[in-house]
Each structure stands twice: as structure tokens, then as C-alpha cells.
Design goal:
It comes from Ancylobacter rudongensis. One of its GO terms (molecular function) is oxidoreductase activity. The relative contact order is 0.19. Helices cover about 45% and strands about 15% of the residues. With about 375 residues, the chain is α+β, with helices and mostly antiparallel strands. The two termini are about 35 Å apart.
Length: about 375
């Protein structure tokens, strides 16, 4: 949702709430200042040798589809188990839990970077069902420029300024997004970006005409600071460059004004403003490889953040299965299943997405 959609939709309802005064409005949608304090606490810096619970808090800052945070952590001496939380699956947009296990990989990579940088380096082992075990031991901290980017990384779903990314920065992104079993393809030529835009719009059109997709998406929308803090998850309006609306008004605005045509216009403008797109492919389509894709995506996102870049997922042509072969051919990887698509560029800093407290993610 963008600002124009929700401002138009909310005009009448906002006027009614505003008539009750500023206190009524704050009570309805919450305070931006309170949300900023909440967000800052979640992203508090880690000292060397931090408590294990602080490592978990940092791991939860990883990216996840719809910001569902589909993970649980089990702590034992010298180990942190990272478990998939299938109660947070999104079966319409992600029927085989692909995004869920990619998200788990994002959390795993964040944990590994934070652990090594603060004196608890370790190694991961992966079980066939997709759970991971991080085994660590005390050691001198290992400086890593990606560590400082963990708290600053965000999904920036708005327009970028179109400036090209220097070749040396592109090379660092390519390196960060490539690991054993995972390849990262960067598109920067405008004709290929235009082709990807067209595929994205075709996927978006299909999704926006699917009532089940829309119902699932709405379940994860958080229209105001109070709702975002109360739930601690989901797609927060301000983090998507939209103004706050009361809970009773937001879903109505969505139904009335978030249309296939309006969303296609928004995504077309966003892609046209982006100087580059990354497409990730795993060698095989299974949970272990999807986790590795997540680890590669998270390193890519942190490397982009460390270089002053913004990024956002753009997965419509992955999620609509009939479009995957054309997307793979466009990236020069025919026969492989595309796993993730991210656009990147220079853009503004928006409010951060919410996170659940550590106590709620412990198994």
C-alpha cells in the first residue's frame, strides 16, 4: 500500500477520529515516538560476550516473508537450536514452505555473524526436516563489517533515486550473495530490468485477483504503531511508506483502494527507480538448499546495507509458479527454480519493522 491509496481511503474515517482530538487519535493508532523507542530497544547494540538471549534478539532482526518471523529458538549449554515455526506459515503465497525455510536461513546467518563478532563463533548443522543447531564456544571476537549492518538492515518498499551502483559495489554484492549451492544473478541493464518488471506485474495481477491471497496478506498487515507493537510482527504501514490508520479503517481502505491496477502502477514505478535486481537460485529445490538461499540473501542484504544501499523483495514471479521458467531464462539459468528476487538502490530510511520479544520465540 502506498500513501496515496490510504490517504484517499482514510479521508472520511480519519476526519471522524480526528474530530475527537489528538488524544483520541493517539489512543486509536498509537504514538510514533513510542514506536521509535520500542524499535530502538530491539536494535540495542551488542557488547562483546553478550548474554545468549541477546544473541537470539539479534537473530530475530533477520528478514522473513511477510515479517512472519517463523522461527523458535531452543537454548542449551553451548548450542542454540533454530526451529521452524509452522504455525506461522503462509500457505496461500507459500504452499510448500519455501519462504519459511528461506527465512530460517536468514535468521541462521544473522546469528552466525553476531556470534562470531561478539566472541561466540560456531558452526551450523542442519537436520533433514529443516531445523538447525548452532554449536559455539568462547573465542576472541572476529570483526565483521556486516555485523554493524544487522540493526540497520530493512526492507525499503518505496521509490529509490535511480542512481547507478558502482561496479566495485556490485562485485561485493555478488560475492556476498553467492555461496556453495547458491548462485546470485545481478540484472542492471535496463532492457532486462524492464522484462523483469513485466513478469512482476503479471504475477502481481494474478495474486491481486486471488481472494485467498488477499485474505492471507491482510492477516499480516499492521496499520498503525499500536498494532505493530501489540503483535510484534507483520507488515507495518509506516515501514511500507504508508500513513497510520485505525484498525477499523485500515482493512476497509485496503479493500476499497488496493486494486490490481493501482498495485501494478506502484510496482512499475518502484522497479523503474531501481538500478539493479538480484535473483537467487539454489542447485536443488529442498529445505536444506532453501535455508542456504536464506543465508545468501541475508548476507547480500547486509552487504547492501553496509554500502548505503536499500533493498526490498520482489517475489511475484517466484510465487506464481507458471512465471518461474521465464524468470529463470531471463536470468540465464534455464531449468533452475528461482528462489528469491530483490531490487536494490539508493533510497530513504523508513521506520523499522516490528519484532516479537525474545520470550515469545523461545521453544
Amino acid at each position: 500500500m502506498n500513501r496515496r491509496h490510504l490517504l484517499i481511503a482514510g479521508a472520511g474515517g480519519v476526519a471522524a477520529v480526528a474530530a475527537g482530538g489528538g488524544l483520541a487519535w493517539r489512543h486509536t493508532v498509537g504514538s510514533t515516538g513510542a514506536y521509535e523507542r520500542y524499535s530502538a530497544e530491539l536494535r540495542a547494540p551488542l557488547p562483546n560476550d553478550p548474554p545468549v538471549l541477546d544473541l537470539v534478539r539479534t537473530a530475530t532482526l533477520a528478514a522473513s516473508g511477510h515479517n512472519t518471523q517463523p522461527w523458535r529458538f531452543r537454548l542449551t549449554p553451548g548450542t542454540i537450536e533454530l526451529l521452524p515455526d509452522l504455525t506461522r506459515a503462509t500457505p496461500v503465497v507459500d504452499p510448500v514452505d519455501h519462504h519459511l525455510f528461506v527465512s530460517l536461513g536468514c535468521a541462521a546467518e544473522t546469528l552466525a555473524i553476531a556470534g562470531a563478532a561478539t566472541g561466540r563463533p560456531g558452526e551450523f548443522s542442519t537436520a533433514p526436516e529443516g531445523s538447525l543447531r548452532y554449536s559455539f564456544a568462547p573465542a576472541p571476537p572476529r570483526p565483521d563489517p556486516l555485523f554493524a549492518a544487522i540493526a540497520r538492515r530493512q526492507s525499503t518498499r518505496t521509490l529509490y533515486d535511480g542512481r547507478p551502483v558502482p561496479n566495485e559495489a556490485l562485485a561485493r554484492l555478488q560475492q556476498a550473495g553467492t555461496r556453495e549451492g547458491v548462485r546470485c544473478v545481478l540484472l542492471t541493464e535496463r532492457p532486462r530490468l524492464d522484462q523483469l518488471r513485466d513478469l512482476t506485474l503479471a504475477g502481481n495481477e494474478a495474486q491481486m485477483r486471488d481472494p485467498a491471497f488477499l485474505a492471507e496478506l491482510k492477516h499480516w498487515l499492521r496499520f498503525n504503531p499500536a498494532s505493530a507493537m501489540r503483535h510484534g510482527d507483520g507488515l507495518y504501514a509506516a515501514a511500507n511508506d504508508s500513513p497510520p490508520l485505525p484498525d477499523w479503517l485500515g482493512p476497509r481502505a485496503f479493500d476499497l483502494f488496493v486494486t490490481p491496477a493501482a498495485e501494478n502502477e506502484k510496482y512499475a514505478r518502484q522497479i523503474d527507480s531501481s538500478p539493479g535486481i538480484a535473483i537467487f537460485f539454489a542447485d536443488q529445490a529442498d529445505r536444506a538448499h532453501w535455508i542456504e538461499v536464506g543465508r545468501a540473501c541475508q548476507r547480500f542484504a547486509l552487504a547492501a546495507t553496509a554500502q548505503g544501499l536499500k533493498l526490498a523483495c520482489l517475489n511475484q514471479a517466484v510465487e506464481v509458479a507458471r512465471l518461474r521458467p521465464e524468470l529463470a531464462a531471463l536470468a540465464g539459468e534455464p531449468g533452475l527454480r528461482p528462489d528469491m528476487v530483490m531490487r536494490f538502490g539508493y533510497g530513504p530510511t523508513l521506520p523499522f519493522a516490528p519484532r516479537r520479544p525474545v520470550a515469545e520465540v523461545l521453544a
